């Protein structure tokens, strides 16, 4: 009897632990080698922005961990870190931020209470590659006119997302969805009542496609906010690289690639833009643009990374250079800066470890900064001990 009782207890224990093991979420981050522990005391944690914007970004990540991201688990170096610990990191950091008046004391408290990891870039163990994105402002109309004749489309009803593939059905077969040329030049979506709004400039519209969100100012001064809804699933191809390889622009002109297109004919513009087959469909937003977490992105505080290599919503620290402009938008110099940021977005061109896109905000200055930001810098991840 005792023998069978012991066997029964063993079965119960085995079932309990197998159930627990099934309940452990799969780690989301692929690469262990991306994270290298560093001595936090060696870093002077200074921040070039106001604390209010940082607290706002922190709140948005906390909201993500309490809702959509609450079950996420990530591999950080040799550890598995869950959403609860990432949330605790943010609440602990916010507490010391509110109680600390200077960078020296903040640096000491971070060294005492947080583990800090440097993120290695591809082929460079010490640096990451930073670029920028922004929220464009376009002029537009709710009706097509001679001036406003370039449409933003909502997601077409025949577009099908099948796991990781996007396409449409034709003659009973699943095929790729229409390309940029087929949509913009051949007009395959015209007359289907898919237009959200019409804008005046095809080059600025393309920039909106790349940025993923923006504002449209109507003729009565009303501002509409539009955001990413879906793409056609086609591969992203850089028109900058295409123009460089074709000898249309020089490398020194790469940051001003859209200016090259401004004076060209519509056919020349579309011949270049159609090189990038990926096409973005939009939706109207009743609030500020949201990132991939479903939370609004915060100007100068939100970054986009590859979610396969960096934990979503996490607290990060960056050090690099930023451009300083004169009144005409020309770069006067580049200066060093550092700040705390939150990982709250992703992008089709942001792939691999050590690849960072900084959200620069809204307006002309943000456009200038994003368009000229391409720097090697340092990216750190902070985790509460």
Polypeptide structure, described:
The protein is an alpha+beta fold and 385 residues long. The protein has 10 helices and 19 strands. The protein folds into 2 domains: 35-128 and 295-349 and 378-384, Barwin-like endoglucanases, CATH 2.40.40.10; 133-285, Barwin-like endoglucanases (Ribosomal Protein L25, Chain P, Beta Barrel). The chain has helices spanning 2-23, 51-66, 83-98, 103-113, 180-184, 202-211, 239-245, 257-262, 266-273, 364-372; strands spanning 35-38, 73-76, 79-82, 114-119, 128-135, 137-141, 150-153, 160-162, 165-170, 173-176, 195-199, 213-217, 223-231, 280-285, 302-304, 315-325, 331-345, 355-362, 374-384. A hairpin with a 5-residue loop joins β16 and β17. α2 packs antiparallel against α3 (83-98). The N and C termini lie far apart (49 Å). The model is unreliable at 1-26 (pLDDT under 50).
Question: What's the helix and strand layout?
Answer:
Blueprint lengths: L1 H22 L11 E4 L12 H16 L6 E4 L2 E4 H16 L4 H11 E6 L8 E8 L1 E5 L8 E4 L6 E3 L2 E6 L2 E4 L3 H5 L10 E5 L2 H10 L1 E5 L5 E9 L7 H7 L11 H6 L3 H8 L6 E6 L16 E3 L10 E11 L5 E15 L9 E8 L1 H9 L1 E11 L1
Parallel strand pairs: 5-18, 6-12, 15-17
Antiparallel strand pairs: 1-4, 2-3, 4-19, 5-19, 6-11, 7-11, 8-9, 9-10, 12-13, 13-14, 15-18, 16-17, 16-19
């Amino acid at each position: 009897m005792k023998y069978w009782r012991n066997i029964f207890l063993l079965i119960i224990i085995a079932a309990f632990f197998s159930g627990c093991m099934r309940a452990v979420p799969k780690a989301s981050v692929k690469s262990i080698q991306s994270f290298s522990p560093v001595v936090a005391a060696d870093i002077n944690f200074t921040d070039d922005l106001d604390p209010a914007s940082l607290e706002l970004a922190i709140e948005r990540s906390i909201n993500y961990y309490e809702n959509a991201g609450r079950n996420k688990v990530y591999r950080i170096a040799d550890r598995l870190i869950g959403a609860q610990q990432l949330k605790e990191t943010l609440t602990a950091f916010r507490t010391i931020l509110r109680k600390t008046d200077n960078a020296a004391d903040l640096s000491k408290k971070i060294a005492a209470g947080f583990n800090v990891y440097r993120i290695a870039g591809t082929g460079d163990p010490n640096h990451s590659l930073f670029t920028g994105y922004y929220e464009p402002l376009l002029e537009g109309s709710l009706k097509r006119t001679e001036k406003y004749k370039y449409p933003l489309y909502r997601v077409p009803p025949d577009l099908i997302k099948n796991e990781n593939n996007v396409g449409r059905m034709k003659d009973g077969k699943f095929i790729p969805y229409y390309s940029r040329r087929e949509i913009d030049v051949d007009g395959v979506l015209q007359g289907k009542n898919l237009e959200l709004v019409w804008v005046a400039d095809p080059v600025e519209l393309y920039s909106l496609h790349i940025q993923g969100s923006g504002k449209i100012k109507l003729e009565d001064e009303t501002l509409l906010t539009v955001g990413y809804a879906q793409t056609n699933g086609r591969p992203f191809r850089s028109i900058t690289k295409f123009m460089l390889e074709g000898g249309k622009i020089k490398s020194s002109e790469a940051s001003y690639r859209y200016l090259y297109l401004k004076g060209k004919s519509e056919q020349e513009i579309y011949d270049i833009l159609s090189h990038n087959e990926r096409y973005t469909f939009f939706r109207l937003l009743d609030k500020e643009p949201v990132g991939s977490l479903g939370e609004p992105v915060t100007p100068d505080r939100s970054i986009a990374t590859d979610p396969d290599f960096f934990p979503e919503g996490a607290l990060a620290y960056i050090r690099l250079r930023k451009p300083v402009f004169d009144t005409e938008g020309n770069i006067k110099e580049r200066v060093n800066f550092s700040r705390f940021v939150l990982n709250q977005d992703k992008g089709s061109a942001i792939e691999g470890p050590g690849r960072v896109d900084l959200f620069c905000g809204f307006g002309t200055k943000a456009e200038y900064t994003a368009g000229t930001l391409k720097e090697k810098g340092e990216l750190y991840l902070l985790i509460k001990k």
